[in-house]
Specification:
Distance between the termini: 169 Å
Number of strands: 0
Helix content: over 70%
Largest sheet: none
CATH superfamily of the largest domain: Tetratricopeptide repeat domain
Number of helices: 22
Number of domains: 3
CATH class of the largest domain: Mainly Alpha
Oligomer: single chain
Radius of gyration: 46 Å
CATH topology of the largest domain: Serine Threonine Protein Phosphatase 5, Tetratricopeptide repeat
Length: 477
């Protein structure tokens, strides 16, 4: 290699090295370093603004922290950091950054206004928690929606509190929607998984509720609230299944207690409890415990007044306690809601027949005998009452005695005749055989109440009266 070539090669190495040294020297100089830092801080601030626009607040805070570390007097970075922290309801940190900004830029109206918004949001959030505890859920929700989330739109605490308030107000569909927004931003948020699971639980969508609880427990197996919710649901479903199985297998008394135990687990779970109340009512009807069955079916209807089966079962229960009019009302309402159900129609016909029978005179009760009384017992009862209420023996209350005597005679006319008694017991109408004691029947005749016109075979029971009345046309005594 010639000298010229050697010199050329040497220069090729030296010139880049010399340039690098000059640049390094420039960067290491105090003036150049400060300018460089300012440039870097401005770049970081610009990137942070972009992240804020896209709501990537964690990344924005990292960039703002770096910008402030690079340039400690960068006022705009403090203002942006305070704003982001307000959005996230990090109130104390936000307030410190606003104060720092106002130290650097005193009297800035934008910052002063945002500080006011910060304080309003903080007070509203604190008030919302107190209102939740006191049970004023509507007012608390108003504070969250109209104040906190207006000034702090990405406040997770406020969003979770809103879901809790919606659950307390039994607005489960809205609770599902709001918790869904939280999980879209953070799919592993344990609080949101728990609250969303509860909303599905109270809608009786137990499979979906269980999946939310299980996902939360996979993330945190020792989470107390998630464990309580998950195992509480499993226990409720287990007790419900046992109650239903015992009812299906005819173990009615055991099933009744099982239904009561299941109901006691969560009195607020109305979407599930409505069917527990119905199951209990059906068991109690089969056991003949009409009053208890009515109460249970009424509890079901308080939850769902359109539940046809609860109306039907309550009608059956009212038949047991002889509330004929109530039974007809319930069964008629059930029939109107389920026009094609012949079982309900048959039950309604039974109730209407029972109601009709209840309005006729109870001849057994009038004679004071049981429905299984023999003809001899019926005759003895008739004779005793006829003597007791004979008008001649009740001069001072003759009108009352005549009415009683007439009623006693009518009762015997039906129950003392085997054919009429059978027809009466079957519930047939016997209006034309003296039940209402119309104009054609007068046991006292027209001669001052001394003559009687009964026509029972064999005369007065046990020979007391004969043919057309009392012996000799006078008093039996």
């Amino acid at each position: 290699m010639g000298a010229a070539e050697k010199h050329s090669g040497c220069c090729g190495l030296v010139l880049p090295l010399l340039f690098f040294c000059v640049i390094s020297a420039f960067q290491s100089s105090p003036v150049a370093g400060e300018e460089n830092q300012e440039i870097n801080a401005v770049i970081l601030l610009k990137r942070a603004s972009e992240k804020i626009q896209s709501r990537q607040y964690d990344e924005a805070l990292s960039l703002l922290n770096a910008a402030i570390d690079t340039e400690s007097d960068l006022s705009e970075a403090y203002l942006q950091r305070a704003t982001v922290q307000r959005y996230l309801c990090r109130f104390h940190e936000s307030e410190r950054n606003y104060k720092k900004f106002l130290e650097l830029k005193p009297g800035t109206s934008v910052a002063e206004k945002e500080v006011s918004q910060l304080l309003q949001a903080q007070n509203a959030l604190d008030s919302s928690y107190r209102l939740l505890e006191s049970g004023d859920f509507v007012k608390a929700l108003e504070y969250i929606d109209k104040v906190v989330l207006v000034f702090c739109p990405s406040c997770i605490k406020a969003k979770l509190l809103k879901v809790k308030l919606l659950l307390a107000l039994k607005d489960y569909s809205s609770a599902i929607a709001e918790s869904g927004y939280i999980l879209k931003e953070d799919e592993n948020n344990l609080d949101a998984l728990l609250l969303r699971g509860r909303a599905y639980y109270y809608l009786a969508d137990h499979d979906v509720a269980s999946r939310h609880y299980q996902k939360g427990l996979r993330l945190d197996p020792e989470n107390t609230e998630l464990k309580k919710a998950y195992f509480g649901l499993k226990n409720l479903l287990k007790k419900t299944r046992i109650a239903e199985d015992n009812a299906a297998n005819g173990k009615l008394r055991v099933a009744a207690e099982d239904f009561k135990s299941a109901l006691a687990l969560d009195p607020d779970h109305t979407a599930h409890n409505v069917y527990l109340f119905l199951g209990l009512c059906k068991v109690l009807v089969k056991l003949g415990r009409g009053k208890d069955a009515i109460n249970s079916c009424t509890d079901a209807l308080k939850i769902d007044e359109e539940l046809v089966e609860a109306l039907t079962q309550r009608g059956e229960a009212k038949l047991i306690v002889e509330d004929w009019e109530g039974a007809v009302a319930d069964l008629k309402a059930a029939a109107e809601k389920s026009l094609e159900d012949m079982n309900i129609r048959e039950a309604l016909m039974r109730a209407e027949k029972a109601l009709k029978l209840s309005k006729r005179k109870d001849w057994y009760k009038i004679l004071g005998v049981s429905k299984t009384a023999s003809i001899a017992e019926i005759k003895r009862a008739y004779k005793k009452l006829a003597l007791q209420w004979h008008p001649d023996k009740n001069v001072e209350n003759r009108e009352e005695a005549e009415a009683k005597f007439r009623e006693i005679a009518a009762a015997y006319e039906v129950l003392g005749d085997d054919e009429k008694r059978v027809r009466y017991d079957r519930g047939e109408d016997l209006e034309n055989i003296g039940m209402d004691m119309g104009a054609g029947f007068n046991p006292f005749g027209g001669g001052g109440g001394q003559q009687f016109t009964f026509h029972f075979d064999g005369g007065f029971p046990q020979g007391g009266f004969h043919g057309g009345g009392f012996p000799g046309g006078g008093s039996p005594l």
